[in-house]
Amino acid sequence: MTELRTLKVALLGCGNVGAQVARILIEDADTLAARAGAKLQLSGIAVRDVHAKRDVDLPQDLFTTDADTLVKDADLVIELMGGIEPARTLILSALRNGACVVTGNKALVAQDGPTLHEEADKAGVQLSYEAAVAGAIPILRPIRDSLAGDRITRVLGIVNGTTNFILDQMDTTGAQFADALAEAQRLGYAEADPTADVEGHDAAAKAAILASLSFHTRFALENVHCEGITSVTAADIAAAKDAGFVIKLLAIAEKLPAAGTDAAGGEGVSVRVHPTLLPREHPLAAVHGAFNAVFIEAENAGELMFYGQGAGGTPTASAVLGDLVSAARSLVLGGPGRTETTTGQVSALPIDAAVTSYYIGLDVADQPGVLARIAQLFAEHGVSIEIMRQAIHRDAESNVESAELRIVTHRASEAALAATVEAVKGLDVINSVTSVLRVEGV
Description:
Structural class: alpha/beta
Largest sheet: 12 strands, mixed
Strand content: 25-35%
């Protein structure tokens, strides 16, 4: 039997995911060697504090604070430190030294992916980041490899477990946002500072990565329109439920038809993150708790959905190790590393060019002719109303009756829809615009 070569693996970071990666590398060494075609030797783990207490019992002699030396001597580098620096410098050093790199650093890939890919291309090594999007769900490799012979037209993703848990709690229990967030923090789904999650920044980084791979064009974080869920109220959730919808924070990347854009070549891609109403029969509407799912529409494959755990040490470690085995095999076989393709070169479009539907909540005067005036204004802006519902309510203090209107529009450009809402606000019969949310899947 041919003796397997040994590849040195440097691990940068030993948090929740890193500790599980190290454990599996040690415990499943024989299985991983058989699949990779080489022995994967964990040569060291770079951390800030070698004596810090960790949930996984690992050999103490593996730990070091000298990440630079560890990287220079490695064949494969796993970066799980997070943040931009020193992760960026260490990854670039690894690539330039001819090491394949596996990372889960969504913020870095979204912000500086082009530079990292350029260095990987120059060195002929593999840069992989399956763990950067949707945790354990295998989504990036299927987009890059399995759908390479197809044309993806649209991607809708629930890619942040924290926000999905919060919105699901609000939907199923009637909780207010603050109470649902507190429960997410108690269960460990949300950080003490949940800003990156609830403001949509985490999902936006993942949206940039999904769009780049799906449309073979490098999209940066600045190309993603981003809105969080902090303005979503229990009343919004209840109204959506009453109309047959559920609210989810979606990462959306879609190619727009020629007629809908001014982009060069007649087409472009809209990449955005925002709270969205989905019909309850849509597959993504059934994604509960902290789970993630990505729904893909392609010209030939049709509709596909990938579902699973979007976070957690062991699930995310599964994605990291899948990339590691793939990278090891590329070194064993001696070919160039697998990377992205950038042959698409479609334009990133502003949010105004997006084509969507709106859910609009209005508090209006209860008097004759109000509905007709609103419908006329919508028509003047080229926006068609699909659903309109009215409920009468009486203010307990003033004893004045008013009407609550809930309108769902047909699909139109974001620019036309936004202009319509602004015009509606100017009508003297409008007391207030209570909510404006986008709708997909209708």
